[in-house]
């Protein structure tokens, strides 16, 4: 189980975001993607997930991918519980109401699970995504700024979720400006260095 | 902790066409039921416009009989078009389209599920209501039957064609207008054969040739368009 990119290159219009970029994430480790705004972190993650096409290079994914980007993938008209169960059913791992409730309980949405998602704050919507990650069966996690809008407690909850995922043999590629409680196996720096 | 402990075994879930299909149709119907207003709006539009014509053109029975099938078809077409802009763009804007694309299920599965849900909340009610509206135009029972059968065959084609146009206009500025320019001309063959079936019946001819052509259009659309939609969605997400 691994995620590997070889000699990746991607440009947006006239701007070359990265060239000859290679990385590898093995089971049980996470790699942080760092770089200034506009350096191509999101593009790299979208390429790794298979959403955006590369100019050249090759991505090898051994296992299913769970991708969480800037867009939450949450339906405003569905409740937190429906959103969570819907997302998991889509990942091919439907859960019963009890487990969905337990996960929502853990992220602190126990009393709000029957509210439509439109009534939740930005941080609470993020927590639905966190609950999904807790139950997510996909071994490869590709996460774009997962800590946005989360408070301190939410951030440590995320760190715990990630370390549990790594312990059971998962791997993750995470773009983040924050330092997490667990250190990444490697840093992947985008920006000046990659462009040279 | 309990919830996650049970997830430790990592089975590799493999997707399937039917799971994706039922997931999408179930979710879209749930969303439609949450906001029945939007569905009813389409139906109300259809009923209102089709009822305004007899008042507008006067109560000449011959004229009404003549224009009835065509007017009802145009109304059905516009009503089906009303709900198209949101078909894929709602999922595109909130990120669910990304999630569906990355899911283990093959894309045509959930694409067909979404299209089926669209037909169930737009095409099907229109088909069911069309005989009632036809009565306002004094259409004979056999003409009403031909009209309903033609709509039953034609409205799924509208959902498929409209879905393809809706996916193609994803992410474009002024998507709604672009969608109208793309979709309405493509609806023309469906309109011609659909209205033709009822008119042929009214003129004492067999509607079978028109219905066969509509059926052929439907088969072609079902076979080709879901794949075109998948390609369009991939391009939009790139």
List keywords for this structure.
heterodimer; A: 196 residues; alpha/beta; Rossmann fold; five-stranded parallel β-sheet; three-stranded antiparallel β-sheet; 27% strand; B: 238 residues; mainly alpha; 83% helix; disordered N terminus
Plain-language structure description:
The complex is a heterodimer of chains A (196) and B (238). Chain A is an alpha/beta fold. Helix content of chain A is 33%, strand content 27%. In chain A, a hairpin with a 2-residue loop joins strand 1 and strand 2. Chain A is globular. By secondary structure, chain B is mainly α. Chain B has one domain. Chain B is built from 11 helices and no strands. Chain B is elongated, with a radius of gyration of 20 Å. The N terminus of chain B is likely disordered.
Q: What is the helix content of chain A?
A: 25-40%
Largest sheet of chain A: 5 strands, parallel
Radius of gyration of chain A, in angstroms, nearest whole number: 17 Å
Beta-strand share of residues of chain B: under 5%
Describe this structure in a few short sentences:
The complex is a heterodimer of chains A (196) and B (238). Chain A is of the alpha/beta class and 196 residues long. Chain A is built from six helices and eight strands; from the N terminus they run βββαββαααβαββα.
Could you outline the blueprint of secondary structure elements for this entry?
The complex is a heterodimer of chains A (196) and B (238).
Chain A: E1 2-12, E2 15-26, E3 30-34, H1 41-49, E4 56-61, E5 65-68, H2 80-90, H3 97-106, H4 122-135, E6 140-144, H5 152-167, E7 171-175, E8 186-189, H6 192-195
Parallel strand pairs in A: 3-7, 3-8, 5-6, 6-7
Antiparallel strand pairs in A: 1-2, 1-4
Helix pairs in contact in A: 2-3, 2-4, 3-4, 4-5
Chain B: H1 2-5, H2 17-34, H3 36-57, H4 61-82, H5 86-94, H6 96-102, H7 107-136, H8 141-168, H9 175-186, H10 188-202, H11 208-237
């Amino acid at each position: 189980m691994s995620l590997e990119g070889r000699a990746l290159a991607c440009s947006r219009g006239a701007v070359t975001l990265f060239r000859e970029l290679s990385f590898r994430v093995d089971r049980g480790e996470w790699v942080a993607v760092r770089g200034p705004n506009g350096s191509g972190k999101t593009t790299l993650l979208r390429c790794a997930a298979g959403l955006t096409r590369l100019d050249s290079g090759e991505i090898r994914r051994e296992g299913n991918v769970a991708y969480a980007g800037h867009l939450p993938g949450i339906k405003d008209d569905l409740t937190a519980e429906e959103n969570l169960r819907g997302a998991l059913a889509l990942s091919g791992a439907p859960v019963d109401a009890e487990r969905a409730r337990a996960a929502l309980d853990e992220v602190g949405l126990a009393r709000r699970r029957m509210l439509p998602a439109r009534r939740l704050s930005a941080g609470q919507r993020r927590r639905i995504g966190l609950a999904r990650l807790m139950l997510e069966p996909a071994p490869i996690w590709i996460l774009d700024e997962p800590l946005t809008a989360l408070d301190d407690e939410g951030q440590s909850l995320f760190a715990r979720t990630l370390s549990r995922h790594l312990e059971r043999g998962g791997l993750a590629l995470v773009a983040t400006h924050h330092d997490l409680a667990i250190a990444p196996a490697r840093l992947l720096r985008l920006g000046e260095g990659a462009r040279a | 902790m309990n919830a996650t402990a049970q997830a430790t075994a990592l089975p590799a879930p493999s997707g399937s066409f039917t799971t994706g299909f039922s997931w999408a149709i179930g979710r879209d119907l749930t969303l439609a039921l949450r906001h029945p207003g939007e569905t009813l709006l389409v139906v109300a539009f259809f009923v209102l416009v089709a009822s305004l014509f007899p008042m507008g053109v006067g109560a000449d029975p011959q004229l009404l009989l003549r224009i009835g099938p065509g007017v009802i078809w145009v109304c059905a077409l516009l009503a089906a078009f009303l709900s198209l802009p949101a078909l894929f763009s709602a999922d595109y804007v909130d990120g669910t389209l990304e999630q569906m694309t990355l899911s283990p299920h093959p894309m045509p599965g959930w694409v067909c599920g979404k299209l089926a849900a669209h037909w169930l909340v737009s095409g099907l009610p229109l088909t069911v209501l069309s005989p009632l509206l036809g009565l306002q135009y004094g259409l004979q029972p056999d003409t009403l039957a031909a009209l309903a059968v033609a709509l039953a065959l034609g409205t799924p084609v509208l959902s498929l064609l409209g879905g393809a146009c809706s996916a193609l206009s994803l992410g474009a500025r002024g998507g709604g207008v672009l969608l109208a320019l793309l979709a309405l001309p493509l609806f023309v063959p469906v309109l011609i054969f659909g209205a033709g079936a009822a008119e042929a019946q009214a003129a004492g001819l067999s509607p079978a040739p028109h219905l066969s052509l509509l059926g052929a259009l439907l088969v072609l659309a079902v076979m080709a368009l879901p794949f075109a939609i998948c390609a369009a969605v991939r391009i939009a997400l790139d």
